[in-house]
Each structure stands twice: as C-alpha cells, then as structure tokens.
Amino acid sequence: MSGSSVPLEISVATARELLDANPGQTLLLDVREVFERDICRLPGGLHIPMREIPENLSTLPRDRHILVLCHHGGRSRRVTEFLRHHGLDAVSNIAGGIDAWAAELDPALARY
Question: Torsion angle of alpha carbons 11, 39, 37, 70, nearest 10°?
Fold first, then answer.
C-alpha cells in the first residue's frame, strides 16, 4: 500500500467500510487508556495506549493500513503523525474517534 495514497484522516464511516471490506489488510489501533476501553470498544482492534506507542513501534505491521482510534480524534491524530514520521506510511486517523463512531454508526455503544 502506497503511503501517498493513504489519507491522513478518514471518517468513521470510511473506517468501518475499510475494516469490513479488507479485514486482512486493515488494522484498527485503539490508543485510548484501559479505563476508556472498559467503557466501550470496537471488536477486533489492537489496543496500545498512546504512551506505549514508542516502545511498541517495531511491533506494528508495515503491510497493513493502520486506522488509529481514540476518544475524539486528538490523541489518535498525534499518534498517526508520529507513526508516519517514523516510516509507517499507511496510517490514518479516525476523525471524531469512538465518540463519532457511537453517534454516527452504533448508538448502542456507551458514550463518555
């Protein structure tokens, strides 16, 4: 996957489409804290809190499109930029985070 073809930020609707259509080529990376994931989570994602990303950089796949998720999109945007700066080109921030996911796609998810 060419980094130049991967948008820096995508909507929750686009993220869901990518995850549904390409589960083997797409990875959901949840960078929220454990207590936040205890409130609500999306199935199938990899959970690495934001503060642990630098020490886990080498474990992240370079052959998949990584979709980064947090609560509202701020932390995930910073993680997206960090990962791209460190050579992972196929990384996109999910704009609005899990809050937008709950509001727009899955009202059954708890909001906080």
Answer: 30
Q: What is the pTM of this model?
A: 0.95
Contacts of 80 (CB under 8 A, 6+ apart): 8, 9, 68, 91, 92, 93
Cβ burial of 96 (10 Å; 0-12, 13-18, 19+) is buried
Q: How far is CA 11 from CA 86, 96, 97, in A?
A: 23, 8, 9
Number of CB atoms found within 10 A of residue 78's CB:
16
Q: What is the set of domains in the chain, with CATH numbers?
A: 3-104 (3.40.250.10)
β-bridge mates for residue 30, sequence order: 47, 69
| Model confidence pLDDT, tens digit, residues 29-39 | 999 999 999 99
